[in-house]
Amino acid sequence: MTISMYQASVPRFVNILNNLNGILDKAQAHIDAKKIDVSALTTYRLFPDMLPMTTQVLIACDAAKGVVARLAGIEIPVYEDNEKTLAELKARIAKTVDFIQSVTPAQIDGTEDKDIVTKRGDKETHYKGMQFLLGHALPNFYFHVTTTYNILRHNGIEIGKRDFLGKP
After folding, report:
1. Which of 29, 53, 49, 50 is nearest to 40 (CA)?
2. What are the CA-CA distances from residue 70 to residues 43, 74, 108, 129 (Å)?
3. Beta strand pairing call for 123-128 and 115-120
4. For 29-78, how does the pLDDT look when each residue is reduced to its tens digit (9 = 90+)?
5. CA 159 to CA 149: how far, in whole Å?
6. N- or C-end of the chain: fewer Cβ atoms within 10 A?
7. Going from the N-terminus, what domains does the chain have, and what CATH number goes with each?
8. In whole angstroms, what is the distance from residue 102 CA to residue 69 CA?
9. CA distance 16 to 95
10. How far apart are CA 28 and CA 46, in angstroms?
11. What is the pLDDT of residues 105-136, one digit of tens each?
12. Element (H, E) at 119
């Protein structure tokens, strides 16, 4: 049996991004109830050399849209990365979900052996489609969503495992 590259990607990203959206709703409710400045959460880092919460959300969105676009062989949408508030982060998540849901199974299925090249500066990394999805993109995506969850949980937002997992 072969894996459906679409089923292993798009529905997984959509589920977790929607769960992240719900987690940000709980963070907003906490901010409103406690009269906290939103930047106390959005700029928070778990450790000084780690990226702040806002950037964690942006990278999670970029990971999802990037892998889906690369597998489908279409242009990766470019977003401005200027979000500062939870509402703006929620809009970024919604825009990402809309994009990845616009890609069809026919565009992604069968890309297990597709050549994928990523670039960071002058360094290129070469993957095959399944290796890229399962060995790089999904772990990277989950890392940044988990880090966002951990930042919020550490700061007293009442969220738990069910909020993270949702109903897969």
Report:
1. 53
2. 30, 6, 9, 9
3. antiparallel
4. 999 999 999 999 999 999 999 999 999 999 999 999 999 999 999 999 99
5. 8
6. N
7. 10-165 (1.20.120.450)
8. 10
9. 14
10. 19
11. 999 999 999 999 999 899 999 999 999 999 99
12. strand 115-120
Q: How far apart are CA 61 and CA 42, in angstroms?
A: 16
Answer yes or no: are the C-beta atoms of 133 and 23 closer than 8 Å.
no
3-class DSSP state for residue 8? coil
d(C-alpha 86, C-alpha 41), whole Å = 9
10 three-class SS:
helix
- Count of residues making up the chain: 168
Burial 66-93 (b: 16+ CB within 10 A, else e): bbbbbbbeeeebeeeeebeebeebbebb
The region that residue 66 occupies, defined by phi over 0 for left and psi between -120 and 50 for alpha, beta otherwise, is alpha
**Residues 44 and 168 sit within 8 Å (Cβ to Cβ):** no
Is the pLDDT at 3 greater than 90? The verdict is no
- 152 sits in the region (left: phi over 0; alpha: psi -120 to 50; else beta) called alpha
Report the candidate in 90, 98, 74 with the shortest Cα–Cα distance to residue 14: 98
Banded pLDDT at 1 (limits 50, 70, 90): low
